[in-house]
Amino acid sequence: MFTYDAPEQLLEGRTILVTGAGDGIGKASAIAYAKAGATVILAGRTEEKLEAVYDEIEALGCKQPAIVPIDFDKASEPDYIELANLLDETFGKLDGILHNAGILGLRTSIENYDPIIWEQVMRVNVNAPFILTQTLMPLLRQSEDASVIFVTSGVATKGRAYWGAYCVSKFATLGLMETLADELENDPSIRINAINPGGTATAMRAYAYPAEDPSTIATPDDIQPAYLFLMGPDSKGVNGQNIDAQGVMSAADFS
Length: 255
Ligand code: NAP
What we know:
With 255 residues, the protein is an alpha/beta fold.
């Protein structure tokens, strides 16, 4: 596991948007960020799930979060502009985005891949993080120390049979992260990185590996050190990296 001992209140005073915050890894990250002192904006498509995470964060006595319902499969540019305006009016700045929301699509050959599902996977996994980052850039620029985290996968660097649009979307996510990081490399106030979570017990993982016993792999809570490190001030200066949340590296390797 990536090693990082996050100081208490690491994210005090920071406002952080987490997409896909209602379930799986996004839910664990939203709660970890709230526990570390952040005001967390919970974005996702299923309001009841977001409300349950909201209640959990409130019950922990953390800062009151906010809920932003958005379906990345259906959203178009005006929806993103409306979201940015809302966040601007409410918070005036944004210190971080975790682009966690994602879908698996089909597990089948390219030859048989349904083009409609292909486009859906690209909209949610690639187009949404692109347009969300672009629309929120003015708010990120209001922060003295902003961090944007994209989420890749083990299939982001080497193609794998029958992983179709998901595999291609994660290559694209890595490309988007590296391109943006390169463009901002001389801007010390915004850093752009990615995390490869590694096999983690969630609904998506169970769908991809139905025969796997989930108790044999990492939980969403186990992998949070990498998510905390990249979101907080200890990763200042780290830019353009794709970190394995279950890898052998530690925060000290970046100091
Ligand atoms: P998950 O349990 O399926 O959660 C995915 C989250 O994304 C859910 O909150 C879901 O909302 C949200 N989402 C899906 N489609 C959406 C849409 N159209 N609009 C808004 N939100 C949407 O998956 P996970 O395993 O936590 O995955 C989180 C990220 O890690 C993904 O980017 C995934 O590719 C990546 N990843 C996971 C693993 C793993 O082993 N779990 C490995 C490598 C990479 P609903 O709850 O409303 O459906």
